[in-house]
Amino acid sequence: MPARHLRTTGTTLRLAIALLVSAAVLAVVLVVPWGGSEPEAAPDPTISHTPEPPTPPPAPVRQNTYACPAYSGIDRTNPVANLYKDTFSWGKTPPTKIGDGKGNINWRANPDQNPSWYMWLHSLRWLGQGINAGAKGDKRALQHVSAIVRDWVKDNPYSWKSDVGAYESTMHRTNVLICLRQAVLSGTHVSKLPLTYAWLDDALVKHAWFLQKNYSGDWNHGTDESLALFGVGCTLGRSDLKKIAADRLTSAIKTSIDTQGTTNEQSTAYAQFNYALWGRAIDVLRKCGVDPGTTITARRRELAKWLALATNSLGNLPQLGDSEVVKTVPVPGTVLEYAGTLGARGIRPTQRIGIFDGGYVFGRTGWGETRPFTQESTYSIRFGPSRKLHGHEDHTSITYTSRGRDILIDGGHSGYKWDDWRSWAKSQDAHNEMTVESAAAAHPDTRLTRSSIGATSEFYELKDKLGPVDRTRGVLVLKDPDLIVVLDRGTAPTDQKYSTLWHLPADQKVVVSGNDRAVAAKPGDRVKTTLLQIPFQQRTTPIEVATGRQDPIQGWHYTTIDKRLPSPVVKFDRAGRDATILSVIAPTRTNATVSYTTSWQGSRMLVNLKVDGVTTVIGVAADGTLQRIK
């Protein structure tokens, strides 16, 4: 089914494993190819009715080759001099001596008990600089990295499935074995692997067998596994392994990326990673003599459009699911180029709203036609299937940028260590939604029940069930003045504690004035955000603000897994069987005035908003319909 793209005038032991390997996106996304051709280096990181330029025919390549896929950047902090000392470095853990200096490694080492550190140790990708030096003829480097790899093979006999770090890193380690094999051939100037390295081919066969028997499924992990398995088949001339891997890839693409371009990862960062990963799949298949077909290319093209619409006015992808703050890659010749360069290059898209059945609404006031690109307002809204893979409990949540800055943010991505911080970052409490205390662990499917798109406003209605609570959110997004109106409603058979949360950037200071407003601004900035709590069907309660709280955790923002900042959260609370919470989020100039009055027109309440001298009228109907009247 094609994506529901809307024009401006239109209407309408596996979970733990998954968490370990997921750290790969943080590094691999920097080095996998984007356009279906090597080399591995890619630029840092939106949808259009303008046809994408045709893909040029591939340049002739040597067949039956499998290129070493580099080392995900992990090798950068592990220079050859450190390898000689058997010292390993990853993340924030200081460089750690893990061997005796002769390649005899303690493979059970894990100084900070960090599952990602341990997995990357077993990946062997940290040996990259030594392997590259060996490929260029450095015999000492080649000898030492070979000793470390052989030590891994000796100390971790098949099957290593009981060791989750060794298990999870199999696909990465397989590629390192292939890279080492290629380095031996080029570094010693031979065309056939010496008999002293027969153990290396034996290890490759065992890794291929492991990958055949332990397929992770149709998501990025399984794709990486299939590529590594294919690499062994290509390297050793095993057509059976190539066929198994190619068949898996042919099937997996239909699940990994749907016909609208949405990935099954439930994460914007992993969506971008998958765009690169499937580009590599095209290269790998083609260069080893297998036709990749047309489906991968077609699904990647739709994913590029998805990423284009997801890109916010700052050139970043919103932090949805397990996502750090990442920029959109401006892939030349694709629809990503214009948004990824903040409108500096490429063809300007004509579509500004996209609704995707996988659970995403991406919208914007424009693409820089009448105001600078960065001064447009952009938003995301989540709905769809319940959480899986890299998803969070973010259904109905909104992110918002306006006036050249973040206005509403997501709590972010805390990494893959199972602790209270990760539990919070994935929970409802880390997102801009109405939470229900008794249903904090609920994993609902959320339906987009209504949508209406106009030239200066969009309305969406979402419904789901959190435990015993029926939850409904109406969202009205306005242009000129740019603001968002949200109506949250909850009903339950028993009394509940409801809170509508608004997460603000870390640089904001919040001042609360009575029960109806909070004003947030960065000291000295020219932009402020006024958050209104307007009475509708219920009395309002005192506004709360939580910043940097640890018990219980609230008021934080992870820009990366290693950087956590205290960030204010504004809370509008209700208690009882029912809740009705009407919010307005209005970004303006710092010295602008934001005021409102209410009146009634039959059963419909009218909200007369005056924002920086501009008056607009919003209708709030008894059934939850929000409408811009003026």
UniProtKB/TrEMBL annotation:
Record GO terms (molecular function): lyase activity
Pfam families xrefs: Hepar_II_III_C, Hepar_II_III_N
Localization per Swiss-Prot or TrEMBL: Periplasm
Listed GO CC annotations: periplasmic space
Keywords assigned: Lyase, Membrane, Periplasm, Signal, Transmembrane, Transmembrane helix
Chain segments annotated as transmembrane: 12-35
Positions of region (Disordered): 41-61
Domain Heparin-sulfate lyase N-terminal, first and last residues per copy: 101-274
Record domain Heparinase II/III-like C-terminal: where: 384-530
Highest taxon, organism lineage: Bacteria
Annotated Pro residues bias: 51-60
This protein's name: Heparinase II/III-like protein
Annotated organism of origin: Kribbella shirazensis
Lineage, highest ranks first: Bacteria, Bacillati, Actinomycetota, Actinomycetes, Propionibacteriales
